[in-house]
Pituitary tumor-transforming gene 1 protein-interacting protein (Buteo japonicus), 101 residues
Amino acid sequence: MYLCAKCVLSNPLVNFEALIIAMSVVGGVILIMLGVCCCCCCCCKKKSKKLDKDDERAAREREKRRVRQEERRAEMKSRHDEIRRKYGLFKEENPYAKFEN
């Protein structure tokens, strides 16, 4: 069972050309996958930073709207109180003050 190098190369069990092509395709696919993974990781970091900035901006806008709403609510309350006083409908702060001895 002695196989000479000439016999192995002349009658191979594996087609080396197909093996080389298959290995290069697999290597190329692996390199492409690594590149895509690296790009995705970089983009996710950028998006997370962008989302943080967007969240901060949204929080600031919510706070501004809340403050404006409170100001409007206080203004409307004072206006309504003035109207109630004008027409004698204003309620006293302590309704039980009349019943004190």
